[in-house]
User: Fold this.
Amino acid sequence: MAVRKLAPEELQPESFAFSSETEAFAEQQIAKYPPGRQASAVIPLLWKAQEQAGGWLPRKAIEAVAARLDMPIIRVMEVATFYTMFNLEPVGKYFIQFCGTTPCVLRGAGDIKKVLEKRIGEQNHVTADGKFSWLEVECLGACCNAPMVQINDDYYEDLTSENFEKLLDDLAAGRPVKTGSQIGRNRSEPHDAVKTLQDPSLYDGSQIGAWRKRFEEQAQPAATGEAAAATATVPEAAKAAKPAAGRAIESDAADTPAKRAKEGEAPVNPTDQKEAGDASRATKVEARTEDAAKPAPQSGKSYVASPGKDAVPTSPTTPNAGTPPAEAETRRDGSESKPGVTVDKDNKTS
Amino acid sequence: MAKIIVDGVEVDVPAEYTLLQAAEAAGAEVPRFCYHERLSIAGNCRMCLVEVKGAPKPVASCAWGVRDCRPGPNGEPPEISTKSPTVKKAREGVMEFLLINHPLDCPICDQGGQCDLQDQAMAYGVDTSRYHENKRAVTDKYLGPLVKTSMNRCIHCTRCVRFTAEVAGVPDMGAIWRGEDMEITSYLEKALGSELQANIADLCPVGALTHKPEAFHFRPWELTKTDSVDVMDAVGSSIRVDSRGREVMRILPRVNESVNEEWITDKTRQIVDGLRLQRLDRPFVRENGRLRPASWQEAFATIAAKVKGTDAKKIGAIVGDLAAVEEMFALKLLMQSLDVTNVDARQDGTVLSPAYGRGSYLFNTTIPGIEDADAILIVGSNPRFEASLVNVRIRKRWRVAPPPIALIGENVDLTYPCEYLGAGADTLAELASGRHSFLEKLKGAERPLIIVGHGALARPDGLAILSAVAKLARDVNAVKDGWNGFSILHTAASRVGALDLGLVPGEGGLTAQQMASGGVEVLFNLGADEIDIAPGAFVIYQGTHGDRGAHRADVILPAATYTEKSGTYVNTEGRVQMANRAAFAPGEAREDWAILRALSEVLGHRLPFDSLNALRAKLYAAHPHFAAIDTVQPADGASAIQALAGIGGTPGRDAFVSPVKDFYLTNPIARASGVMAECSALARELKLEAAE
Assistant:
């Protein structure tokens, strides 16, 4: 963890008082807890105070929260220093939290970091114009669109050095920017055309759930000639479980795709593949009338109830990849609350 | 009660006990760092791991209740093991982790030889480290003049944080940052604002917090330990005086559940340097306005010449705050033999007197009794500074379940919330007449406690106030069978003993104030430094330090402090306790009783004892209760309260002012101490800051 410290005295503001909005928020938060337990609201209050103070917590703000909650200052200090999302030193107008965890690094976060270092400088360092500062943080949970950064309250994903530079330029110039994916990806869908899970048979019950029909068909003869089947499966000449000790193993034991590849053959026998993929081998499933009506076990509320045949959709539920976000029906959009960042629906960064 | 098997021994313990307590009840020793009997449970050091049968892994015994253990399959009592190989291995693992970041600086660490980590590493540590990374480094913190920090050594047990927040009631300390970066500090490294802060260095199981004034002065194994009692206030805390050769090196608390539990105030602990500074080490005689060193014979001869030519009515004796019962008894006998009735041990002008019965001047409730009180009224006292450990008990009572607590007097921070009623006797009258709702709370209480301090008593109208309080106590039924809620809080260690001896003016005798303001021609001053003696009288000062009394003296007889003599002290409850000699008085200074015995011979009225034992035999014959060391002889509360209530009188309108203006400078020893001066200056600063 990076070494954190309180901001030096010369950066600390002279005073800090709750704005009316913060005060209203504080009242609302404190009201959530029983009387005398107002200290429970310390984290929301610190969060709001940080928002009011411009993204960081001055000492006076910590003291103001302590006074508001009737707590010893050191107790609030303990909380404010414990959580790394409370910034104790001033941050830029655009505070960039750069994800430096493995998935982002694998997808090129190193380049993004270079851009940050080049344009902004070291971590925890505010640019001269006060616009930017950045901090490397752990996984922000948007690995699907790695690499990504969080700027103030918004995620900016699918970054490359070029589009990230442009993003920073736009922010610096006060131009509207697009949140979310910077390459036109819809949410976390595949970026290019959707190539998988498109076969309609996946959704008509012909493959998914087909095992049951097959199982029932195979179980039928086994049940009738059980004794005969039992004797029939006894091997005529039992083999030793292990090779005799000391015997040299002359060849690879199994016929594996890796071995085949080594020998210059196709790893998978095309005929085998064709047989395995033969739709005629799959059986259509019957409606599971008796099971479908049952609730999922051990829970009154089912999170896993699988739809019966009637409910199976006839077409894929996901729209085609590459649909521009502007055309998507809904948007993950927290940007309205963010002053200074206007989102232009038609702006396509990628 | 619940049964539990500890290492094969079945014990029956209360179900709310923790496994650690149960193990101790069964005689098993469990190592620990963070757990402390008098603090809340933190469970963060993990050293007290034990194995619980059926549990998948070792559990922290300090934080696991006996009632939380599952019984065996056939209803057998739960079984724990404190000595199994698993436990040993687990503890060794914990110890290894603790030692990862602990510096190997035992040779330069003041905790060496008295260190929990050192001791437990002998049992659970390994001889080498497998850790090859860099150790954590933490900057040392400033916590004031009493506690020295060396934060690299901290193992984050948070005992200090819990002590300041829970016992001292001053939430100054905390643990900021987190994980490996966690640091114990005060807010912005301000000095701690507690009069009990040095206890955190005792609590610290490692050398992270040590006592600053005694840093690098000694090793614990060099010291001779002497059990004694403290005389800085009237609580009479049990202490252990550690000395090396002639010098007292440190003072530590001793566990005494009935008085100080295991805490002592900073003044009790850190006046050690005052015991060797400013000492009177030879007799002095004033000649031509200047004191000159003299021999004992010269000094005695000067006194004898003066006394012989003076009428007994013009001779007087005042006793100070630090005198032991023995010398007061000797002084009383000497004055009796001289037919002197002007004897007074109440230099602060308090109105308490044995005339109204012993119950009229004791803290009748006793200090442990505070924990039973269900409504508390404090009149004219600031217990936090007049008797800090009484305040700790009130706070302890408040923490269990807050009783109604009200305060009449100075509006001070007592570390617990209390209803402030008013400043003076007027408020008391209003309360008595029922114009305050608090009267109902007192009346409704089963065991009301009324504490009267010297802010209300050490003043000319003190008797009227005392009478009014007694009336109030009678009205709220504070004194009844099995409960005496009428308690006087003293500030001087000698006072109760003196009142027990009857060291108050005899028939036609003058009080201390009258004597000091010119009522007598020859004044024998036995260590009274808190009283201004008007010019004119011939003053014989027998004391220990070159303080106010010595400056005004015409003859100085150097005496021994409480660590240099064996003496009996009676605390505010009436508990008789014995202080023992840990060192010898410097130079020609002698024990007080011996000085008086020698002087009596020169004066021609030889006292009838030649040894301390003979003196004590006489003392116990005259006052049998002094023989019952460490016990409280209960006083008849009902008659005392009747006697007091019958006095009547009209109290004045002045506000009550605590006699302790500066906690750190209340007696000559403390005023000689450099550490106390530093604390006092700091406390003034903090006060000014708070006033801003």
Summary: The longest strand of chain B covers residues 238-244. Chain B has 22 helices and 28 strands. Chain B touches chain A at residues 165, 171-181, 186-188 (CB under 8 Å). The CA atoms of residues 489 and 668 of chain B lie 21 Å apart.
